Amino acid sequence: MDDNNVFYIRDLFSRNLKRLRGSANISQLTLANQVELSHNFINDIENGKKWPSARSIGKLAIALRVEPYQFFLSESRWNQREKEILSTYLDDLEDSINKTLTDYRRRYIPNGANGHGGDGKANEENNSDKASDKTTDAEQLS
Questions:
Q1: Which CATH number fits domain 3-73: 2.40.50.1000, 1.20.1050.80, 3.90.550.10, 1.10.260.40?
Q2: What are the structural domain ranges in the chain?
Q3: Which end of the chain is more exposed for a tag (fewer CB within 10 A), N or C?
Q4: Contact present, 24 and 62 (Cβ < 8 Å)
Q5: What is the Cα–Cα distance from 34 to 59, expressed in whole angstroms?
Q6: What sign results for the dihedral spanned by CA atoms 5, 10, 15, 16?
Q7: pLDDT (tens digit, 9 = 90+) per residue, 85-117?
Q8: Under a CB-based contact definition with an 8 Å cutoff, are residues 72 and 13 in contact?
Q9: Is residue 67 packed enough to be buried (19+ CB in 10 Å), middle (13-18) or exposed (0-12)?
Q10: Backbone phi, psi, residue 79, to 5°
Protein backbone atom coordinates (compact mmCIF):
# COMPACT_ATOMS: atom_id res chain seq x y z
CA MET A 1 0.00 0.00 0.00
CA ASP A 2 1.49 3.36 -0.95
CA ASP A 3 1.58 6.47 1.24
CA ASN A 4 -1.35 8.11 -0.58
CA ASN A 5 -3.65 5.23 0.32
CA VAL A 6 -2.47 5.26 3.93
CA PHE A 7 -3.08 9.00 4.14
CA TYR A 8 -6.54 8.60 2.53
CA ILE A 9 -7.58 5.86 5.00
CA ARG A 10 -6.28 7.80 7.99
CA ASP A 11 -8.06 10.95 6.80
CA LEU A 12 -11.25 8.98 6.16
CA PHE A 13 -11.11 7.43 9.62
CA SER A 14 -10.49 10.76 11.37
CA ARG A 15 -13.30 12.56 9.52
CA ASN A 16 -15.73 9.74 10.24
CA LEU A 17 -14.74 9.60 13.90
CA LYS A 18 -15.50 13.33 14.18
CA ARG A 19 -18.80 12.89 12.31
CA LEU A 20 -19.92 9.90 14.38
CA ARG A 21 -18.89 11.53 17.66
CA GLY A 22 -20.76 14.69 16.67
CA SER A 23 -23.84 12.68 15.70
CA ALA A 24 -23.75 10.97 19.08
CA ASN A 25 -23.37 14.39 20.73
CA ILE A 26 -20.35 13.18 22.71
CA SER A 27 -17.34 15.35 23.53
CA GLN A 28 -13.79 14.11 22.96
CA LEU A 29 -13.31 13.97 26.72
CA THR A 30 -16.45 11.90 27.32
CA LEU A 31 -15.53 9.53 24.50
CA ALA A 32 -11.97 9.21 25.84
CA ASN A 33 -13.30 8.30 29.28
CA GLN A 34 -15.72 5.74 27.84
CA VAL A 35 -13.05 3.96 25.81
CA GLU A 36 -10.29 4.36 28.40
CA LEU A 37 -8.02 6.41 26.14
CA SER A 38 -6.58 9.84 26.75
CA HIS A 39 -8.34 12.95 25.50
CA ASN A 40 -5.12 13.89 23.67
CA PHE A 41 -5.09 10.55 21.86
CA ILE A 42 -8.70 11.03 20.65
CA ASN A 43 -7.79 14.53 19.53
CA ASP A 44 -4.70 13.23 17.69
CA ILE A 45 -6.78 10.53 15.94
CA GLU A 46 -9.34 13.12 14.81
CA ASN A 47 -6.53 15.32 13.51
CA GLY A 48 -4.89 12.43 11.62
CA LYS A 49 -1.76 12.47 13.77
CA LYS A 50 -2.21 9.07 15.40
CA TRP A 51 -3.74 5.76 14.39
CA PRO A 52 -5.83 3.58 16.78
CA SER A 53 -5.28 -0.14 17.23
CA ALA A 54 -7.93 -2.63 16.15
CA ARG A 55 -8.90 -2.98 19.80
CA SER A 56 -9.35 0.80 20.13
CA ILE A 57 -11.41 0.91 16.94
CA GLY A 58 -13.68 -1.72 18.48
CA LYS A 59 -14.02 0.28 21.70
CA LEU A 60 -14.78 3.45 19.73
CA ALA A 61 -17.44 1.65 17.70
CA ILE A 62 -19.11 0.30 20.86
CA ALA A 63 -19.03 3.71 22.58
CA LEU A 64 -20.52 5.44 19.52
CA ARG A 65 -23.00 2.59 18.90
CA VAL A 66 -21.87 2.04 15.32
CA GLU A 67 -20.30 -0.77 13.35
CA PRO A 68 -16.51 -0.53 12.88
CA TYR A 69 -16.82 -0.37 9.07
CA GLN A 70 -18.61 2.99 9.41
CA PHE A 71 -15.27 4.61 10.25
CA PHE A 72 -14.12 3.73 6.73
CA LEU A 73 -17.10 4.86 4.62
CA SER A 74 -16.44 7.49 1.99
CA GLU A 75 -18.26 10.78 2.19
CA SER A 76 -20.47 9.92 -0.79
CA ARG A 77 -21.66 6.81 1.08
CA TRP A 78 -22.38 8.92 4.17
CA ASN A 79 -24.39 11.42 2.13
CA GLN A 80 -26.45 8.59 0.65
CA ARG A 81 -26.97 7.03 4.08
CA GLU A 82 -27.89 10.39 5.63
CA LYS A 83 -30.52 10.91 2.92
CA GLU A 84 -31.96 7.46 3.61
CA ILE A 85 -32.07 8.17 7.34
CA LEU A 86 -33.67 11.58 6.79
CA SER A 87 -36.24 10.13 4.42
CA THR A 88 -37.16 7.40 6.91
CA TYR A 89 -37.35 9.94 9.73
CA LEU A 90 -39.61 12.26 7.71
CA ASP A 91 -41.90 9.37 6.72
CA ASP A 92 -42.19 8.32 10.37
CA LEU A 93 -42.81 11.91 11.43
CA GLU A 94 -45.52 12.33 8.79
CA ASP A 95 -47.24 9.11 9.90
CA SER A 96 -47.10 10.20 13.53
CA ILE A 97 -48.55 13.63 12.76
CA ASN A 98 -51.35 12.12 10.67
CA LYS A 99 -52.24 9.64 13.43
CA THR A 100 -52.25 12.41 16.02
CA LEU A 101 -54.46 14.64 13.86
CA THR A 102 -56.88 11.79 13.25
CA ASP A 103 -57.01 11.04 16.97
CA TYR A 104 -57.64 14.68 17.89
CA ARG A 105 -60.36 15.00 15.24
CA ARG A 106 -62.13 11.94 16.64
CA ARG A 107 -61.87 13.19 20.21
CA TYR A 108 -62.58 16.89 19.89
CA ILE A 109 -64.47 17.58 16.68
CA PRO A 110 -68.05 16.27 16.41
CA ASN A 111 -68.89 14.18 13.37
CA GLY A 112 -69.28 16.27 10.27
CA ALA A 113 -67.85 19.48 11.77
CA ASN A 114 -65.39 21.30 9.54
CA GLY A 115 -65.68 18.57 6.94
CA HIS A 116 -63.32 16.23 8.81
CA GLY A 117 -65.41 14.19 11.20
CA GLY A 118 -67.86 12.29 9.06
CA ASP A 119 -69.03 11.74 5.55
CA GLY A 120 -70.70 15.15 5.29
CA LYS A 121 -74.22 13.74 5.00
CA ALA A 122 -75.18 14.90 8.49
CA ASN A 123 -74.47 18.52 7.55
CA GLU A 124 -76.35 18.18 4.27
CA GLU A 125 -79.37 16.70 6.08
CA ASN A 126 -79.28 19.42 8.75
CA ASN A 127 -79.06 22.12 6.08
CA SER A 128 -81.98 20.67 4.10
CA ASP A 129 -84.04 20.38 7.32
CA LYS A 130 -83.30 24.03 8.13
CA ALA A 131 -84.29 25.05 4.61
CA SER A 132 -87.60 23.19 4.88
CA ASP A 133 -88.19 24.72 8.32
CA LYS A 134 -87.69 28.19 6.83
CA THR A 135 -90.12 27.39 4.05
CA THR A 136 -92.66 26.20 6.57
CA ASP A 137 -92.17 29.35 8.65
CA ALA A 138 -92.54 31.53 5.55
CA GLU A 139 -95.70 29.70 4.51
CA GLN A 140 -97.13 30.12 7.97
CA LEU A 141 -96.63 33.89 7.83
CA SER A 142 -98.59 34.26 4.60
A1: 1.10.260.40
A2: 3-73, 78-141
A3: C
A4: no
A5: 8
A6: positive
A7: 767 777 888 888 989 989 988 988 877 565 544
A8: yes
A9: exposed
A10: -60, -40
DSSP 2: -
| pLDDT attached to residue 118 | 46
Q: Which amino acid is at 132?
A: S
Q: Is the pTM of this model over 0.85?
A: no
- DSSP code of 142? -
Distance CA 13, CA 47 (A): 10
DSSP of 23-81, one letter per residue? HTT--HHHHHHHHT--HHHHHHHHTTS----HHHHHHHHHHHTS-GGGGG--HHHHHHH
Report the percentage of the chain scoring pLDDT > 90: 37
Can you tell me the distance from the alpha carbon of 119 to that of 53, in angstroms, rounded to the nearest whole number? 66
Give the model confidence (pLDDT) of 2-53 as tens digits: 767 778 888 899 999 999 999 899 999 999 999 999 999 999 999 989 999 9
